[in-house]
Amino acid sequence: MMKARKQCEMSCDLMHTDNPYLFVIAVLIVYESSLLTGSVALNLNRYKDVLQLIADSIAALYAICFISKKLEKFRIGKVLELCGGESFYIMGLHIVSFKLCTMLLMFLGIVDGGLEYLMTPKLGNNVTLLIVYTLCGLFFPVAFMSGFRRLKSFILQNIHHAD
Question: What average pLDDT score do residues 42-71 get?
Fold first, then answer.
């Protein structure tokens, strides 16, 4: 039993993502691999070999975990944690929020176009519209689910008090 526990502790020590030297190595692996062998596109089933896929995936995952661990101490880390916790609802409701945002922008006269642009207008190089759509795509689903949970709690409390 003690031997298994020591092995578990050793593997957990290897999983720490706070080593800056490993972070630099991981970023260099991903960078060099993309320069030497090209990009990886899993959705197109395009990669040079399995070893490249495994090495790039592990290195990129380590780099992302390192950055995430550094960000969790700041306020942006709390925002990203909220987005991660609500990611299912964000994924499900972002299209609705894009349509609502486009309708609001059309009503205000900021965006021209008809119903063909109802999803999202052609953004081009307009960074401001990109930021507006990103914030709407995040804010609306989170606010909607927060309101839904409060309404559900309110209804359930009233049902219990009525009994």
Answer: 82
